[in-house]
Amino acid sequence: MGALTERAAAGALSLEAEALELSTGIDRSSLADSTTHAGLPQAPAVRLTHVVKRYGAGPVVLEDISLDIAPGEFVCLLGASGCGKSTLLNLIAGLEPLTSGEITAPEGGAAVMFQESALMPWLTARRNVELALRLRGVPRGERRPEAERLLATVNLSEAADKRPHELSGGMRQRVALARALAQDRSVLLMDEPFAALDAITRDLLHEELERVWRATGRTIVFVTHNVREAARLGQRVVLLSSRPGRIAGEWRIRNTVGRRIESPEVAALAAEITAELRKEIARNAA
Amino acid sequence: MPLDVTERAPAADLDTLSAGLDRLQSDDVERRAPVRDALSKTLPPVVLLGALLVVWQLYIVIAEPRPDKAPSPGQVAAALGDAWASGRLQEAVATSLERGVIGFLIAIVVGTPLGLLLAEWKPLRRAAGPLISGLQVLPSVAWVPAAIIWFGLSDATVYFVILMGAIPSIVNGLLSGIDQVPPQLRRVGTVLGASRRQLATEVVLPASLPGYIAGLKQGWAFSWRSLMAAEIIATGGSIGFGLGSMLDQSRELADLAAVLGTIILILAIGILIELVVFGPLERRMLRSRGLLLGGAR
Questions:
Q1: pLDDT at A13
Q2: What span, in angstroms and rounded, lies between the C-alpha atoms of A62 and A77?
Q3: Above 0.90 for ipTM, yes or no?
Q4: Does A19 touch chain B (CB under 8 A)?
Protein backbone atom coordinates (compact mmCIF):
# COMPACT_ATOMS: atom_id res chain seq x y z
CA MET A 1 0.00 0.00 0.00
CA GLY A 2 2.69 2.45 1.09
CA ALA A 3 4.84 1.91 -1.95
CA LEU A 4 1.84 2.27 -4.23
CA THR A 5 0.71 5.66 -2.89
CA GLU A 6 4.27 6.91 -2.92
CA ARG A 7 4.56 6.11 -6.55
CA ALA A 8 1.20 7.72 -7.18
CA ALA A 9 2.33 10.85 -5.39
CA ALA A 10 5.54 10.94 -7.40
CA GLY A 11 3.50 10.62 -10.57
CA ALA A 12 1.28 13.50 -9.52
CA LEU A 13 4.30 15.69 -8.78
CA SER A 14 5.98 15.09 -12.09
CA LEU A 15 2.64 15.66 -13.77
CA GLU A 16 2.44 19.12 -12.25
CA ALA A 17 6.05 19.86 -13.01
CA GLU A 18 5.70 19.01 -16.65
CA ALA A 19 2.29 20.52 -17.08
CA LEU A 20 3.79 23.69 -18.39
CA GLU A 21 5.77 21.89 -21.02
CA LEU A 22 3.59 21.74 -24.09
CA SER A 23 6.05 20.17 -26.48
CA THR A 24 4.80 16.70 -27.21
CA GLY A 25 6.74 14.69 -29.67
CA ILE A 26 4.69 12.65 -32.05
CA ASP A 27 6.44 9.91 -33.89
CA ARG A 28 5.11 8.34 -36.99
CA SER A 29 6.55 4.85 -37.05
CA SER A 30 6.49 2.78 -40.14
CA LEU A 31 4.89 -0.64 -40.30
CA ALA A 32 8.24 -2.32 -40.68
CA ASP A 33 9.60 -1.45 -37.27
CA SER A 34 6.52 -2.51 -35.39
CA THR A 35 8.19 -5.78 -34.46
CA THR A 36 11.67 -4.42 -33.77
CA HIS A 37 11.66 -1.45 -31.46
CA ALA A 38 15.10 -0.05 -31.04
CA GLY A 39 15.91 0.87 -27.48
CA LEU A 40 13.73 -1.68 -25.75
CA PRO A 41 15.94 -3.35 -23.19
CA GLN A 42 13.50 -5.96 -21.81
CA ALA A 43 11.63 -8.78 -23.51
CA PRO A 44 8.16 -7.70 -24.58
CA ALA A 45 5.27 -8.30 -22.17
CA VAL A 46 3.07 -9.44 -25.03
CA ARG A 47 4.33 -10.56 -28.42
CA LEU A 48 2.10 -11.35 -31.37
CA THR A 49 3.73 -12.99 -34.37
CA HIS A 50 1.85 -13.35 -37.65
CA VAL A 51 -1.46 -13.86 -35.89
CA VAL A 52 -4.35 -14.91 -38.14
CA LYS A 53 -7.91 -15.43 -36.97
CA ARG A 54 -10.94 -16.68 -38.85
CA TYR A 55 -14.14 -18.20 -37.53
CA GLY A 56 -14.66 -21.60 -39.12
CA ALA A 57 -14.67 -21.24 -42.89
CA GLY A 58 -15.77 -17.60 -42.66
CA PRO A 59 -13.79 -14.59 -43.83
CA VAL A 60 -10.42 -13.76 -42.30
CA VAL A 61 -11.01 -11.48 -39.31
CA LEU A 62 -7.41 -10.74 -38.45
CA GLU A 63 -4.65 -11.01 -41.04
CA ASP A 64 -1.00 -11.32 -40.15
CA ILE A 65 -0.87 -9.19 -37.02
CA SER A 66 2.61 -8.80 -35.55
CA LEU A 67 2.99 -6.58 -32.52
CA ASP A 68 5.34 -6.28 -29.58
CA ILE A 69 4.13 -4.63 -26.42
CA ALA A 70 6.78 -3.63 -23.93
CA PRO A 71 6.36 -4.11 -20.17
CA GLY A 72 4.62 -1.11 -18.67
CA GLU A 73 3.56 0.22 -22.04
CA PHE A 74 0.13 1.75 -22.67
CA VAL A 75 -1.01 0.71 -26.15
CA CYS A 76 -4.31 1.74 -27.72
CA LEU A 77 -5.75 -0.51 -30.41
CA LEU A 78 -7.90 1.70 -32.57
CA GLY A 79 -10.23 0.78 -35.40
CA ALA A 80 -13.67 1.13 -36.90
CA SER A 81 -16.42 -1.33 -36.04
CA GLY A 82 -15.78 -4.83 -37.29
CA CYS A 83 -12.02 -4.51 -37.53
CA GLY A 84 -11.54 -7.35 -35.09
CA LYS A 85 -9.96 -5.31 -32.32
CA SER A 86 -12.06 -7.00 -29.65
CA THR A 87 -11.22 -10.36 -31.23
CA LEU A 88 -7.55 -9.49 -30.98
CA LEU A 89 -8.00 -8.69 -27.30
CA ASN A 90 -9.83 -11.97 -26.72
CA LEU A 91 -6.97 -13.80 -28.43
CA ILE A 92 -4.42 -12.17 -26.14
CA ALA A 93 -6.64 -12.97 -23.14
CA GLY A 94 -6.80 -16.58 -24.27
CA LEU A 95 -10.59 -16.51 -24.46
CA GLU A 96 -10.54 -17.67 -28.09
CA PRO A 97 -8.17 -19.94 -29.98
CA LEU A 98 -6.13 -18.40 -32.79
CA THR A 99 -6.13 -19.85 -36.30
CA SER A 100 -2.41 -19.49 -36.91
CA GLY A 101 0.54 -17.51 -35.64
CA GLU A 102 1.78 -17.21 -32.13
CA ILE A 103 1.01 -15.13 -29.04
CA THR A 104 3.33 -14.93 -26.08
CA ALA A 105 1.64 -13.50 -23.02
CA PRO A 106 2.75 -13.61 -19.40
CA GLU A 107 2.34 -16.79 -17.41
CA GLY A 108 -1.11 -17.05 -15.86
CA GLY A 109 -2.78 -14.84 -18.44
CA ALA A 110 -3.89 -11.24 -18.35
CA ALA A 111 -6.51 -9.27 -16.47
CA VAL A 112 -9.44 -8.18 -18.63
CA MET A 113 -11.96 -5.37 -18.33
CA PHE A 114 -15.01 -5.23 -20.59
CA GLN A 115 -17.32 -2.53 -21.88
CA GLU A 116 -20.03 -3.73 -19.50
CA SER A 117 -18.67 -3.70 -15.98
CA ALA A 118 -19.98 -7.29 -15.63
CA LEU A 119 -19.98 -7.06 -11.86
CA MET A 120 -21.83 -9.79 -10.00
CA PRO A 121 -25.11 -8.03 -9.20
CA TRP A 122 -25.65 -9.94 -5.96
CA LEU A 123 -22.32 -8.89 -4.45
CA THR A 124 -21.30 -5.53 -3.01
CA ALA A 125 -18.44 -3.62 -4.61
CA ARG A 126 -16.01 -4.98 -2.05
CA ARG A 127 -17.29 -8.55 -2.38
CA ASN A 128 -16.87 -8.31 -6.14
CA VAL A 129 -13.22 -7.43 -5.66
CA GLU A 130 -12.90 -10.11 -2.98
CA LEU A 131 -14.27 -12.70 -5.42
CA ALA A 132 -11.37 -11.97 -7.77
CA LEU A 133 -8.95 -12.28 -4.86
CA ARG A 134 -10.48 -15.58 -3.79
CA LEU A 135 -10.34 -17.01 -7.30
CA ARG A 136 -6.70 -15.91 -7.38
CA GLY A 137 -6.12 -17.93 -4.21
CA VAL A 138 -5.58 -15.11 -1.72
CA PRO A 139 -6.14 -16.44 1.85
CA ARG A 140 -9.42 -15.47 3.47
CA GLY A 141 -7.98 -13.13 6.11
CA GLU A 142 -6.12 -10.99 3.59
CA ARG A 143 -8.97 -10.49 1.14
CA ARG A 144 -10.91 -7.79 2.92
CA PRO A 145 -8.05 -5.35 3.58
CA GLU A 146 -6.68 -5.99 0.09
CA ALA A 147 -10.09 -5.33 -1.49
CA GLU A 148 -10.43 -2.12 0.51
CA ARG A 149 -6.96 -1.01 -0.57
CA LEU A 150 -7.84 -1.66 -4.23
CA LEU A 151 -11.12 0.24 -3.96
CA ALA A 152 -9.21 3.14 -2.42
CA THR A 153 -6.92 3.08 -5.47
CA VAL A 154 -9.93 3.89 -7.64
CA ASN A 155 -11.40 6.36 -5.14
CA LEU A 156 -14.28 4.15 -4.09
CA SER A 157 -13.66 3.51 -0.39
CA GLU A 158 -17.01 4.96 0.54
CA ALA A 159 -18.95 2.85 -1.94
CA ALA A 160 -17.44 -0.46 -0.78
CA ASP A 161 -20.69 -1.75 0.70
CA LYS A 162 -22.94 -0.69 -2.17
CA ARG A 163 -24.24 -3.11 -4.73
CA PRO A 164 -23.66 -2.54 -8.44
CA HIS A 165 -27.19 -1.22 -9.09
CA GLU A 166 -26.62 1.50 -6.51
CA LEU A 167 -23.56 2.75 -8.35
CA SER A 168 -23.34 5.00 -11.40
CA GLY A 169 -21.89 3.67 -14.65
CA GLY A 170 -18.56 5.33 -14.00
CA MET A 171 -18.37 3.94 -10.47
CA ARG A 172 -19.19 0.47 -11.74
CA GLN A 173 -16.35 0.66 -14.23
CA ARG A 174 -14.01 1.74 -11.46
CA VAL A 175 -15.07 -1.28 -9.38
CA ALA A 176 -14.40 -3.39 -12.47
CA LEU A 177 -10.97 -1.75 -12.72
CA ALA A 178 -10.29 -2.51 -9.05
CA ARG A 179 -11.35 -6.09 -9.70
CA ALA A 180 -9.03 -6.31 -12.70
CA LEU A 181 -6.21 -4.95 -10.53
CA ALA A 182 -7.09 -7.60 -7.91
CA GLN A 183 -6.07 -10.24 -10.42
CA ASP A 184 -2.52 -8.98 -9.98
CA ARG A 185 -1.45 -9.65 -13.55
CA SER A 186 1.17 -7.51 -15.18
CA VAL A 187 -0.93 -7.10 -18.33
CA LEU A 188 -4.34 -5.41 -18.27
CA LEU A 189 -6.53 -5.76 -21.36
CA MET A 190 -9.37 -3.27 -21.69
CA ASP A 191 -12.15 -3.70 -24.24
CA GLU A 192 -13.78 -0.29 -24.81
CA PRO A 193 -14.25 0.08 -21.06
CA PHE A 194 -15.53 3.66 -21.17
CA ALA A 195 -17.56 3.52 -24.39
CA ALA A 196 -20.93 3.48 -22.63
CA LEU A 197 -20.17 6.40 -20.32
CA ASP A 198 -21.00 10.07 -20.68
CA ALA A 199 -18.21 12.42 -21.76
CA ILE A 200 -17.62 14.04 -18.36
CA THR A 201 -17.35 10.73 -16.56
CA ARG A 202 -15.15 9.32 -19.32
CA ASP A 203 -12.85 12.31 -19.06
CA LEU A 204 -12.38 11.76 -15.32
CA LEU A 205 -11.92 8.02 -15.77
CA HIS A 206 -9.15 8.72 -18.29
CA GLU A 207 -7.35 10.59 -15.56
CA GLU A 208 -8.02 7.87 -12.99
CA LEU A 209 -6.81 5.19 -15.36
CA GLU A 210 -3.68 7.17 -16.20
CA ARG A 211 -2.97 7.63 -12.51
CA VAL A 212 -3.51 3.92 -11.79
CA TRP A 213 -1.26 3.04 -14.74
CA ARG A 214 1.53 5.28 -13.51
CA ALA A 215 1.09 4.02 -9.95
CA THR A 216 1.00 0.30 -10.72
CA GLY A 217 3.25 0.04 -13.77
CA ARG A 218 0.81 -2.28 -15.52
CA THR A 219 1.08 -3.01 -19.23
CA ILE A 220 -2.21 -1.83 -20.70
CA VAL A 221 -3.74 -2.78 -24.01
CA PHE A 222 -6.74 -0.53 -24.51
CA VAL A 223 -9.20 -1.20 -27.33
CA THR A 224 -11.32 1.71 -28.53
CA HIS A 225 -13.08 3.13 -31.56
CA ASN A 226 -12.73 6.64 -30.16
CA VAL A 227 -9.78 8.37 -31.85
CA ARG A 228 -9.54 11.14 -29.25
CA GLU A 229 -9.57 8.61 -26.44
CA ALA A 230 -6.71 6.72 -28.07
CA ALA A 231 -4.74 9.93 -28.63
CA ARG A 232 -5.45 10.99 -25.05
CA LEU A 233 -4.40 7.75 -23.35
CA GLY A 234 -1.89 5.80 -25.40
CA GLN A 235 1.87 5.89 -25.44
CA ARG A 236 1.38 4.18 -28.73
CA VAL A 237 -1.70 4.08 -30.94
CA VAL A 238 -2.09 1.12 -33.29
CA LEU A 239 -4.60 1.60 -36.07
CA LEU A 240 -6.30 -1.52 -37.38
CA SER A 241 -7.89 -1.65 -40.81
CA SER A 242 -11.21 -3.40 -41.29
CA ARG A 243 -12.03 -6.65 -43.10
CA PRO A 244 -9.56 -8.13 -42.74
CA GLY A 245 -8.01 -6.53 -39.70
CA ARG A 246 -4.40 -5.58 -40.36
CA ILE A 247 -2.13 -3.05 -38.73
CA ALA A 248 -2.60 0.06 -40.87
CA GLY A 249 -0.57 2.53 -38.90
CA GLU A 250 1.22 3.24 -35.67
CA TRP A 251 1.87 6.42 -33.76
CA ARG A 252 4.17 6.83 -30.75
CA ILE A 253 3.67 9.66 -28.32
CA ARG A 254 6.97 10.60 -26.69
CA ASN A 255 5.64 12.80 -23.93
CA THR A 256 2.46 11.49 -22.34
CA VAL A 257 2.61 13.52 -19.14
CA GLY A 258 0.01 16.21 -18.64
CA ARG A 259 -2.16 15.29 -21.61
CA ARG A 260 -5.85 16.17 -21.47
CA ILE A 261 -8.63 15.34 -23.87
CA GLU A 262 -8.73 19.03 -24.87
CA SER A 263 -4.96 19.45 -25.24
CA PRO A 264 -3.92 20.80 -28.65
CA GLU A 265 -1.38 18.02 -29.17
CA VAL A 266 -4.08 15.41 -28.56
CA ALA A 267 -6.35 17.18 -31.04
CA ALA A 268 -3.55 17.34 -33.61
CA LEU A 269 -2.74 13.65 -33.24
CA ALA A 270 -6.44 12.75 -33.34
CA ALA A 271 -6.85 14.71 -36.57
CA GLU A 272 -3.93 12.90 -38.13
CA ILE A 273 -5.19 9.48 -37.05
CA THR A 274 -8.73 10.28 -38.16
CA ALA A 275 -7.49 11.14 -41.66
CA GLU A 276 -5.76 7.76 -41.84
CA LEU A 277 -8.80 5.96 -40.39
CA ARG A 278 -11.09 7.55 -42.97
CA LYS A 279 -8.82 6.38 -45.76
CA GLU A 280 -9.07 2.86 -44.39
CA ILE A 281 -12.86 3.07 -44.13
CA ALA A 282 -13.15 4.54 -47.65
CA ARG A 283 -11.25 1.57 -49.06
CA ASN A 284 -14.14 -0.64 -47.93
CA ALA A 285 -16.58 1.24 -50.16
CA ALA A 286 -14.76 0.15 -53.31
CA MET B 1 -14.02 29.60 -13.03
CA PRO B 2 -11.35 30.65 -15.53
CA LEU B 3 -10.85 28.21 -18.33
CA ASP B 4 -7.16 27.50 -17.84
CA VAL B 5 -7.76 26.46 -14.24
CA THR B 6 -10.16 23.72 -15.24
CA GLU B 7 -7.91 22.69 -18.07
CA ARG B 8 -4.80 22.33 -15.98
CA ALA B 9 -6.26 21.24 -12.67
CA PRO B 10 -3.62 19.49 -10.58
CA ALA B 11 -3.97 15.76 -10.06
CA ALA B 12 -4.82 16.21 -6.38
CA ASP B 13 -8.14 17.68 -7.50
CA LEU B 14 -9.07 14.45 -9.27
CA ASP B 15 -10.25 12.89 -6.01
CA THR B 16 -12.51 15.85 -5.29
CA LEU B 17 -13.81 15.89 -8.84
CA SER B 18 -14.62 12.22 -8.95
CA ALA B 19 -16.17 12.31 -5.47
CA GLY B 20 -18.39 15.18 -6.65
CA LEU B 21 -19.40 13.32 -9.78
CA ASP B 22 -20.13 10.17 -7.77
CA ARG B 23 -22.38 12.18 -5.47
CA LEU B 24 -24.18 13.69 -8.45
CA GLN B 25 -24.70 10.40 -10.21
CA SER B 26 -25.81 8.18 -7.36
CA ASP B 27 -29.04 9.24 -5.77
CA ASP B 28 -29.71 8.06 -2.27
CA VAL B 29 -32.69 5.79 -2.05
CA GLU B 30 -35.48 7.58 -0.29
CA ARG B 31 -36.82 5.61 2.64
CA ARG B 32 -40.45 6.05 3.54
CA ALA B 33 -41.69 5.87 7.10
CA PRO B 34 -42.06 2.14 7.92
CA VAL B 35 -45.49 2.47 9.53
CA ARG B 36 -46.91 4.41 6.62
CA ASP B 37 -45.24 2.00 4.24
CA ALA B 38 -46.77 -1.06 5.93
CA LEU B 39 -50.15 0.65 6.10
CA SER B 40 -50.14 1.56 2.41
CA LYS B 41 -49.45 -2.09 1.57
CA THR B 42 -51.89 -3.83 3.93
CA LEU B 43 -54.78 -1.39 3.77
CA PRO B 44 -55.94 -1.94 0.15
CA PRO B 45 -56.34 -5.75 0.36
CA VAL B 46 -58.05 -5.49 3.76
CA VAL B 47 -60.47 -2.86 2.42
CA LEU B 48 -61.21 -5.04 -0.63
CA LEU B 49 -61.83 -8.07 1.60
CA GLY B 50 -64.21 -6.04 3.75
CA ALA B 51 -66.03 -4.74 0.67
CA LEU B 52 -66.45 -8.28 -0.71
CA LEU B 53 -67.92 -9.44 2.60
CA VAL B 54 -70.31 -6.48 2.67
CA VAL B 55 -71.47 -7.21 -0.91
CA TRP B 56 -71.94 -10.87 -0.02
CA GLN B 57 -73.96 -10.04 3.09
CA LEU B 58 -76.02 -7.44 1.22
CA TYR B 59 -76.84 -10.02 -1.47
CA ILE B 60 -78.08 -12.45 1.21
CA VAL B 61 -80.17 -9.77 2.90
CA ILE B 62 -81.64 -8.22 -0.28
CA ALA B 63 -82.06 -11.21 -2.64
CA GLU B 64 -82.86 -13.77 0.10
CA PRO B 65 -81.57 -16.81 -1.84
CA ARG B 66 -82.09 -20.42 -0.62
CA PRO B 67 -79.70 -20.90 2.35
CA ASP B 68 -78.53 -24.30 1.04
CA LYS B 69 -77.44 -22.71 -2.28
CA ALA B 70 -76.08 -19.46 -0.91
CA PRO B 71 -75.04 -19.43 2.74
CA SER B 72 -74.27 -16.13 4.44
CA PRO B 73 -70.77 -15.17 5.64
CA GLY B 74 -71.94 -15.89 9.15
CA GLN B 75 -73.03 -19.44 8.26
CA VAL B 76 -69.67 -20.11 6.58
CA ALA B 77 -67.83 -18.83 9.63
CA ALA B 78 -70.04 -20.99 11.84
CA ALA B 79 -69.28 -24.06 9.71
CA LEU B 80 -65.56 -23.38 10.11
CA GLY B 81 -66.13 -22.91 13.84
CA ASP B 82 -67.84 -26.30 14.04
CA ALA B 83 -64.99 -27.95 12.19
CA TRP B 84 -62.54 -26.29 14.58
CA ALA B 85 -64.55 -27.42 17.64
CA SER B 86 -64.62 -31.03 16.40
CA GLY B 87 -60.87 -30.91 15.68
CA ARG B 88 -61.34 -31.84 12.02
CA LEU B 89 -60.13 -28.46 10.82
CA GLN B 90 -56.84 -28.62 12.70
CA GLU B 91 -56.28 -32.22 11.61
CA ALA B 92 -57.01 -31.41 7.98
CA VAL B 93 -54.75 -28.34 7.91
CA ALA B 94 -51.93 -30.19 9.67
CA THR B 95 -52.19 -33.22 7.37
CA SER B 96 -52.34 -31.18 4.17
CA LEU B 97 -49.57 -28.76 5.16
CA GLU B 98 -47.32 -31.61 6.24
CA ARG B 99 -47.83 -33.42 2.93
CA GLY B 100 -47.50 -30.25 0.92
CA VAL B 101 -44.27 -29.20 2.63
CA ILE B 102 -42.69 -32.68 2.61
CA GLY B 103 -43.71 -33.26 -1.01
CA PHE B 104 -42.36 -29.84 -1.99
CA LEU B 105 -39.05 -30.47 -0.20
CA ILE B 106 -38.66 -33.82 -1.99
CA ALA B 107 -39.44 -32.04 -5.27
CA ILE B 108 -36.65 -29.50 -4.54
CA VAL B 109 -34.18 -32.28 -3.70
CA VAL B 110 -35.03 -34.14 -6.92
CA GLY B 111 -35.66 -31.17 -9.20
CA THR B 112 -32.54 -29.10 -8.43
CA PRO B 113 -29.88 -31.65 -9.47
CA LEU B 114 -32.07 -32.66 -12.40
CA GLY B 115 -32.23 -29.03 -13.56
CA LEU B 116 -28.46 -28.62 -13.15
CA LEU B 117 -27.83 -31.81 -15.08
CA LEU B 118 -30.11 -30.70 -17.92
CA ALA B 119 -28.54 -27.24 -18.00
CA GLU B 120 -24.99 -28.59 -18.12
CA TRP B 121 -25.44 -31.55 -20.44
CA LYS B 122 -26.74 -30.22 -23.75
CA PRO B 123 -27.68 -33.52 -25.48
CA LEU B 124 -29.83 -34.50 -22.50
CA ARG B 125 -31.39 -31.04 -22.54
CA ARG B 126 -32.30 -31.38 -26.20
CA ALA B 127 -33.70 -34.87 -25.61
CA ALA B 128 -35.64 -34.25 -22.41
CA GLY B 129 -36.43 -30.55 -22.71
CA PRO B 130 -39.75 -30.93 -24.58
CA LEU B 131 -40.81 -33.71 -22.21
CA ILE B 132 -40.18 -31.54 -19.15
CA SER B 133 -42.03 -28.60 -20.70
CA GLY B 134 -44.91 -30.93 -21.60
CA LEU B 135 -45.05 -32.34 -18.07
CA GLN B 136 -45.33 -28.82 -16.76
CA VAL B 137 -48.44 -28.25 -18.87
CA LEU B 138 -49.98 -31.64 -18.09
CA PRO B 139 -52.34 -31.23 -15.11
CA SER B 140 -50.87 -33.48 -12.47
CA VAL B 141 -54.39 -34.59 -11.45
CA ALA B 142 -54.24 -36.70 -14.59
CA TRP B 143 -51.77 -38.92 -12.70
CA VAL B 144 -54.23 -39.66 -9.88
CA PRO B 145 -55.93 -42.69 -11.50
CA ALA B 146 -52.60 -44.22 -12.45
CA ALA B 147 -51.17 -43.50 -9.00
CA ILE B 148 -54.15 -45.15 -7.31
CA ILE B 149 -53.65 -48.27 -9.43
CA TRP B 150 -49.89 -48.30 -8.67
CA PHE B 151 -49.87 -47.33 -5.00
CA GLY B 152 -53.45 -47.92 -3.87
CA LEU B 153 -55.14 -45.47 -1.52
CA SER B 154 -51.97 -44.58 0.38
CA ASP B 155 -49.83 -41.51 1.04
CA ALA B 156 -47.55 -42.64 -1.78
CA THR B 157 -50.32 -41.77 -4.25
CA VAL B 158 -50.56 -38.24 -2.85
CA TYR B 159 -46.81 -37.70 -2.88
CA PHE B 160 -46.48 -39.08 -6.40
CA VAL B 161 -49.04 -36.58 -7.69
CA ILE B 162 -47.35 -33.71 -5.84
CA LEU B 163 -43.95 -34.61 -7.30
CA MET B 164 -45.31 -34.88 -10.84
CA GLY B 165 -46.72 -31.38 -10.41
CA ALA B 166 -43.81 -29.66 -8.68
CA ILE B 167 -40.66 -31.18 -10.17
CA PRO B 168 -41.18 -29.95 -13.76
CA SER B 169 -41.80 -26.41 -12.46
CA ILE B 170 -38.66 -26.40 -10.37
CA VAL B 171 -36.58 -27.88 -13.21
CA ASN B 172 -37.93 -25.36 -15.71
CA GLY B 173 -37.39 -22.46 -13.31
CA LEU B 174 -33.79 -23.45 -12.72
CA LEU B 175 -33.22 -23.99 -16.46
CA SER B 176 -34.60 -20.58 -17.40
CA GLY B 177 -32.61 -19.01 -14.56
CA ILE B 178 -29.40 -20.58 -15.87
CA ASP B 179 -30.26 -19.68 -19.48
CA GLN B 180 -30.65 -16.05 -18.46
CA VAL B 181 -27.25 -15.79 -16.79
CA PRO B 182 -25.59 -13.00 -18.79
CA PRO B 183 -22.76 -14.51 -20.86
CA GLN B 184 -20.39 -11.74 -19.77
CA LEU B 185 -20.63 -12.96 -16.16
CA ARG B 186 -19.39 -16.39 -17.24
CA ARG B 187 -16.68 -14.71 -19.28
CA VAL B 188 -15.59 -12.67 -16.28
CA GLY B 189 -15.56 -15.82 -14.17
CA THR B 190 -13.27 -17.48 -16.70
CA VAL B 191 -11.01 -14.42 -16.90
CA LEU B 192 -10.79 -14.30 -13.10
CA GLY B 193 -9.49 -17.85 -13.21
CA ALA B 194 -12.49 -19.79 -11.90
CA SER B 195 -12.38 -23.55 -12.32
CA ARG B 196 -15.38 -25.31 -13.85
CA ARG B 197 -16.73 -26.09 -10.40
CA GLN B 198 -16.08 -22.57 -9.10
CA LEU B 199 -17.77 -21.13 -12.16
CA ALA B 200 -20.88 -23.15 -11.30
CA THR B 201 -20.96 -22.39 -7.58
CA GLU B 202 -19.62 -18.82 -7.53
CA VAL B 203 -21.14 -17.43 -10.72
CA VAL B 204 -23.81 -19.49 -12.47
CA LEU B 205 -25.84 -20.64 -9.45
CA PRO B 206 -26.08 -17.27 -7.69
CA ALA B 207 -26.76 -15.57 -11.01
CA SER B 208 -29.60 -17.98 -11.78
CA LEU B 209 -31.24 -17.45 -8.39
CA PRO B 210 -34.10 -15.20 -9.64
CA GLY B 211 -35.28 -17.86 -12.10
CA TYR B 212 -34.75 -20.60 -9.55
CA ILE B 213 -36.84 -18.85 -6.88
CA ALA B 214 -39.57 -18.16 -9.45
CA GLY B 215 -39.51 -21.89 -10.23
CA LEU B 216 -39.72 -22.79 -6.54
CA LYS B 217 -42.66 -20.46 -6.10
CA GLN B 218 -44.48 -22.02 -9.02
CA GLY B 219 -43.42 -25.46 -7.80
CA TRP B 220 -45.07 -24.79 -4.46
CA ALA B 221 -48.26 -23.60 -6.18
CA PHE B 222 -48.31 -26.78 -8.25
CA SER B 223 -47.63 -28.92 -5.15
CA TRP B 224 -50.51 -27.33 -3.29
CA ARG B 225 -52.93 -27.60 -6.21
CA SER B 226 -51.97 -31.20 -6.99
CA LEU B 227 -52.29 -32.09 -3.34
CA MET B 228 -55.82 -30.70 -3.11
CA ALA B 229 -56.85 -32.46 -6.32
CA ALA B 230 -55.39 -35.74 -5.13
CA GLU B 231 -57.06 -35.46 -1.73
CA ILE B 232 -60.45 -34.76 -3.28
CA ILE B 233 -60.26 -37.66 -5.69
CA ALA B 234 -58.47 -40.23 -3.57
CA THR B 235 -60.16 -40.61 -0.20
CA GLY B 236 -60.34 -43.50 2.19
CA GLY B 237 -57.82 -46.32 2.50
CA SER B 238 -54.73 -45.34 4.50
CA ILE B 239 -54.87 -41.78 3.17
CA GLY B 240 -55.15 -39.40 6.11
CA PHE B 241 -57.74 -36.67 6.49
CA GLY B 242 -56.63 -33.54 4.62
CA LEU B 243 -58.29 -30.36 3.44
CA GLY B 244 -59.28 -32.01 0.15
CA SER B 245 -60.88 -34.88 2.06
CA MET B 246 -62.72 -32.38 4.23
CA LEU B 247 -63.98 -30.64 1.11
CA ASP B 248 -65.17 -33.91 -0.39
CA GLN B 249 -66.84 -34.96 2.88
CA SER B 250 -68.76 -31.67 3.07
CA ARG B 251 -69.89 -32.14 -0.54
CA GLU B 252 -71.29 -35.59 0.32
CA LEU B 253 -73.21 -34.00 3.18
CA ALA B 254 -74.41 -31.22 0.79
CA ASP B 255 -73.07 -28.75 3.36
CA LEU B 256 -72.30 -25.76 1.13
CA ALA B 257 -71.30 -23.52 4.04
CA ALA B 258 -68.59 -26.03 5.03
CA VAL B 259 -67.51 -26.42 1.39
CA LEU B 260 -67.13 -22.66 0.96
CA GLY B 261 -65.42 -22.41 4.33
CA THR B 262 -62.87 -25.05 3.31
CA ILE B 263 -62.25 -23.34 -0.04
CA ILE B 264 -61.59 -20.07 1.77
CA LEU B 265 -59.27 -21.90 4.14
CA ILE B 266 -57.28 -23.45 1.25
CA LEU B 267 -57.05 -20.04 -0.40
CA ALA B 268 -55.98 -18.41 2.86
CA ILE B 269 -53.19 -20.94 3.41
CA GLY B 270 -51.94 -20.30 -0.14
CA ILE B 271 -51.92 -16.54 0.47
CA LEU B 272 -50.25 -17.00 3.85
CA ILE B 273 -47.39 -19.10 2.43
CA GLU B 274 -46.87 -16.51 -0.32
CA LEU B 275 -46.85 -13.64 2.19
CA VAL B 276 -44.67 -15.34 4.78
CA VAL B 277 -42.24 -17.40 2.70
CA PHE B 278 -41.96 -16.58 -1.01
CA GLY B 279 -42.88 -12.91 -0.96
CA PRO B 280 -40.12 -11.81 1.45
CA LEU B 281 -37.61 -14.24 -0.11
CA GLU B 282 -38.24 -12.94 -3.61
CA ARG B 283 -38.33 -9.28 -2.58
CA ARG B 284 -35.08 -9.55 -0.68
CA MET B 285 -33.34 -11.24 -3.58
CA LEU B 286 -34.68 -8.81 -6.18
CA ARG B 287 -33.97 -5.76 -4.06
CA SER B 288 -30.36 -6.77 -3.47
CA ARG B 289 -29.92 -7.00 -7.23
CA GLY B 290 -31.72 -3.77 -7.99
CA LEU B 291 -34.42 -5.64 -9.92
CA LEU B 292 -37.23 -4.37 -7.72
CA LEU B 293 -38.48 -1.00 -8.90
CA GLY B 294 -40.75 1.22 -6.85
CA GLY B 295 -42.89 -0.01 -3.98
CA ALA B 296 -45.54 -1.74 -6.03
CA ARG B 297 -45.03 -5.11 -4.36
A1: 38
A2: 13
A3: no
A4: yes
Residue B90 contacts A, CB cutoff 8 Å: no
**In chain B, where does DSSP find H-type helix?**
3-7, 13-25, 34-63, 73-86, 88-120, 122-137, 144-151, 155-179, 183-191, 196-198, 205-207, 209-233, 243-252, 256-273, 279-288
The reply to whether residue A171 touches residue B22, judged by beta carbons under 8 angstroms, is: yes
Average pLDDT over residues A110-133: 87
The residue ranges of chain B whose pLDDT is under 50 are 1-9, 295-297
- What is the per-residue pLDDT for B101? 92
Tens of pLDDT, residue by residue over B109-136, are 999 989 988 888 889 988 988 888 888 8
Element housing A23 (H / E):
none
Q: A99-113, A132-146, B206-220: which range is least confident on average?
A: A99-113
From the list A122, A162, A204, which residue is nearest B21 (CB)? A204
Question: What is the distance in angstroms between the Cα of A30 and the nearest Cα belonging to chain B?
Answer: 33
A93 has a chain B CB within 8 A of its CB: yes
* CB hemisphere CA count around A7 (13 angstroms): 14
Amino acid at A7: R
Helices (H) and strands (E) in chain A, counts: 8, 10
**Taking CB atoms and an 8 Å cutoff, what residues of chain A touch B198?**
135
Please tell me the distance from the alpha carbon of residue A81 to that of residue A197, in angstroms, as a whole number: 18
Cα-based distances in Å from A67 to A34, A37, A45: 6, 10, 11
Q: What is the pLDDT of residue B50?
A: 92
Partner-chain contact B29 A122, CB within 8 Å = no
